[in-house]
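#structure-requests
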Amino acid sequence: MDLNLLCDEIRKHLTGTETDDEIRRIVDAAGLPPIVAEQAVNVLTAAGVDPDRSPPANAVKLAVPGGDRLVALADSIRPLLSGNESATQIEALLQAAGFAAELIGPTTEQLLAERTAPEHPPVPTAAPDMPPPVPDASQTIQPPPMGHAPAPSNPAAEPPALATRESVEPEPNEQPPRLLVHWGVAPEIGHVVRPQFLIAVSSAYAQPRVHVQIDPALDHDPEQIPDTARHEDDGLWGFHVPFALTTNHLDCRPGQYLVDVAVTFPTPRASGLPRCFRTTIRLSIRRSDGEPTLEISGDGQSVVNLNGQDLRRFGRVILKGDDTGIINIQSGLETDSAPAQEVTHEYALHVDAERERLMPRVCEGTSRLRADALTLVCPDGRRILLLARRYLQLGRNRENDIVTRFLPRSESNDEHSRRLSRTHASLSLTDRGLLVSDKSTTGISVAGEPVTESTLIDPCNVDESFELELGISLDVERPFSLEVRLLGRHTQPPNIRLLDGWEQLMADALGEPVPRQWQTAVAAGIDGLRLRRRDSLRDTEEYVAVLRQAWIGSSSTSHAICLPGAATGTHGRILHAAESFWLEGFGMEISVDGTPVAPGELVPLSEGMTFSVGETTLSVEASGQSDL
């Protein structure tokens, strides 16, 4: 508490003619702690009185019990408030200032009643099981310090990011999202809790995605923590997070535990609004000093009457006596007292500047095609088939992902094609690498080595290519062969830095969970595959499996989609998420149907559109192979 501000507030209620004793009585009547009161008296009496000062019109006689004492107390604390604190935060400040217990509640009500324009709108009354906020008398759960905000990041000290974006603050007329947590009864050591989290937002925000991280010292099951919130009411989204105040199934130690909450919204309906928020909830868990015990010993002649006494406040009750003693506890264990008060807190959600800066934005007003296969046609006629599948089948059957035919068409080549199996081989992405399996009667080879049933390509070969041959036992001059290149982290372009967890950023931007295929690709360290024909259709058709991402650039070794005429470097990438293909640019001049694409913007690809990378223009068509 600022002593000078406190004295200034008390001085407003002095007439200027009080003696030192009268000043002391007025300060004592304010209910201040002794040390603060004594310092205030010294400051006020040292300043002396002003004989020319006339009493103010609203002078309050603090020494008069029951007068305007609450107004005076409110005036003494008001300069320390910003005006948007919750009732719990005000009570915590009053308690820290040493206010008497019986004055904290009324003073808080006085301060809240004076607000004519609250900082936050009220919580919708239709929220289920949502009691009004109540004071936390036990101080088991402490809200974040008032005015707390994350320290601003220093972009200049960071390496270049994938997509640089300035930090965005809420518009003046837009209320930021709020987080309310209904704890039920204040949790105690050894208890299992399942608090209800409620996110209150304006109509500009859609369904949020959430990420809650419980302190690792507390027992919890990450699989039971949701990643999305369900709609509770207009502008209200809720979810539950179960955990226990135990460690390895034993009572946790008293202390402070952290619960980190990150909330991410898809692109808001109103432009310029932030989408990434976070807060840290600090649980201050305390254990009482010893277990209260009541021991009653009768000597055979005593009569002990405990009728009406509340014995539940004792951890143990020990009764000693014999058959001749009388102990009356008729109503000592009845449960007719008031139930424990429930606890609800509001926590400030702060803009997560780092995630906000890196998170891409979804282009609005562009049609979106749900497909797992598309074809890109380059200016020179080369066709690139995009396949968003972690399991690819190869064979002469048209139902396969890649149809294997000896070309150009001729009687001899058609005969060789018919001797390939309907489903000849398969490529499957696993957590351990790429599994190549033989499904045929004429065999396959990988890097010149025949394959018996299957072989695993280790992720350590992600920066290399190998030759896949089909029909190795056929009597042909050269078997049907493909060059297969694994692309992944080892081939990540040097001018691009991907942060850990960018998958979640992308998924949050699209409002979808992280695709399972991405999770497998991350585990394997493989972003995608590129398959090129060795002979027939060489340099005219190739296939790209978009497992996690497909880089666009000029390098045939680093980029899945190689554009020889493009400038040196990486210009963008193609992703597959939420059942659609997406194009993202990295600063190079990229446009879709003539409209420039901002860096970090996601644009869905659909049939019939064109996109340009510098001077190179590609068209998007339905999936399909040539010369079938």
